[in-house]
Each structure stands twice: as structure tokens, then as C-alpha cells.
Amino acid sequence: MGKMFKFTEKFRGGSSSFDVDKVLYNQKSRFQNIFIGHSPSIGHFLALDNKINSSEVDYFIYHEAIVHPCMVSLQEPKRVLIIGGGEGVQVKEILKYGNIIIDWVDIDETVVKKCREFLPYALKKDLKNVNLYIQDGMKFVSETKKKYDFIMADLTEPSGKDGISNKLYSEDFAKKIKDRLTDQGMYITLCWEMENGRWRYKLRPEYLVKTFKYVRPMHFFMPSFGSDFSLVIASKKYDPAKISKKQIREKLKRIRGSLFFYDEDTHKAIFSFTKFQKNFF
Predict the structure, then answer these.
(1) Which has the minimum average pLDDT: 242-251, 258-267, 268-277?
(2) Are 71 and 96 in contact (CB under 8 A)?
(3) What residues contact 24, with CB distance under 8 A and at least 6 apart?
(4) Running DSSP on this structure, what letter comes out for residue 158?
(5) Would the pTM count as exceeding 0.85?
(6) How far is the C-alpha of 3 from the C-alpha of 172, rounded, in Å?
(7) Active site residue 19
(8) Distance CA 217, CA 230 (A)
(9) Which of 26, 149, 154, 200 could be bridged to 85 by S-S, CB 3.0 to 4.6 A?
């Protein structure tokens, strides 16, 4: 082990720190700084531009939450599009449902390669049903003619005027996504939108409300983030908050492999917000 030091993530109004005992990779790619290290408290972890993206201690919480609420709400999904998500964990979660065809688009090839090399929980190899495209997400969605039952945008947070994910939090992108979805299609992304020239955290982003029939936020606690975390599902046909516990149980009986976070009770809990949360956000 190397010399211990503090990794500090700054955010509006404060910061959080934890000890790091090993640096496995720390370089800037064409798009962002990539830091992969090991901490006694959260294990191996990935940080992009000094923001924690995932960690060994709780990666399964985020990745089960971004995949399974949509997958159990759909009727026999066949094809999925993933935008971002360099660790590839969401690929492994989707394939628990069988022979799903997955198109995986990530702008930063270095993130994908270094996650495979250094993160024990990352997807380690190419798979037959998975087509990996190193490409800009907006460009891919604009040019493809394929239709998907489920599209996932596992993105970095928007930042400033030129953040690499900024244009993917927009009405223009949402309309392109809607066009690429099947009639039952669902889309999941982070809860951000541009409002009056500033990025705002918002449970039901207006650009999604304008575009989709159902817009349902969900939330869960992430220990390595030290906070609650929210995602939002936009749907053309099905309301993911309305699926019954019985339906969820029956679908989860058929998956391959185990889940550590998500089940029918968790599904109902993550769609529940207190009055204060709904008013504040």
C-alpha cells in the first residue's frame, strides 16, 4: 500500500473526504480526468472530474436502481440502449433478463478500458449480445434507425457551459430519445435541467414533462455519495410507479443471478417522497 491521503469531493456549500491508500490510475483523457483508486472505507472506486461515480461498497445499489424498475415494468423487452456507464455494470444487470440485445455507447474509451483493468466490479470482457460504440451519445441517437424498449442515460452531471453531458439534458435530446423508443419504451436519466442559464437539480425536469406521458422520479441512499440520489424515468405507455408487487415478484423469479438491493418492496419505496422533498425539489 502507498502513503494514505485524503480524496476530497467538493460540491456547492461544502465538501466530503475519505482516505485513499492506493492510486491505480489518475490521468486526463480527451474529455475528463479519470481517477481510480482504493479506499479502506469504500473499496475500489471511480471518480470523474473529482466526482465519485461508483464504488465497490455500494455500486450495486445504483446499478440495480437504474436497470430493474424499468425492466420489470416492460413487456418482454428485446433491445436496450445504454448511453454512458463506463463501468459496464448495467450491462451485466440487463443480461440477467436473458438474451437482450444491448447497444452501449460511451464517448470516452479510456474510461471503459481503465474500468475493465482496475475495477473488480466492472464488465471485464466483450459479450456476444453487446455492441460497444465509442461515440457521442447525441450523434448516435440522431443517426441510428433502431428502436429500443429501454434507453438508459448513465451520465456524468452537467457542468458549466461545456460539460460533456450537458446537451443530453435537453428537450432536443429527449425528443430524439422518444423517437428511438418502441411504443412501450422507457427512458431513465439523472434529475437535472437548465433553467434561466443555470443547472438545477429537479425531480421532474420540465423538458421530460413536455415530451413524455409519464415522468416518475425515484430516489435511494448512496453511502459512498453520503447522500440521497435521484433518477427519473420517462415513459411512453406504462407508469413504473403503478406496477404491482406481485408482477415484480413474478418477473424477478425468472432472472439469472442475484440482486442485493432491488425487490418488490424496494420498488415501492424508491418512488415514495415526503411532502418536504416534493415541495423542495
Answers:
(1) 268-277
(2) no
(3) 36, 37, 38, 44, 118
(4) P
(5) yes
(6) 47
(7) no
(8) 7
(9) 154
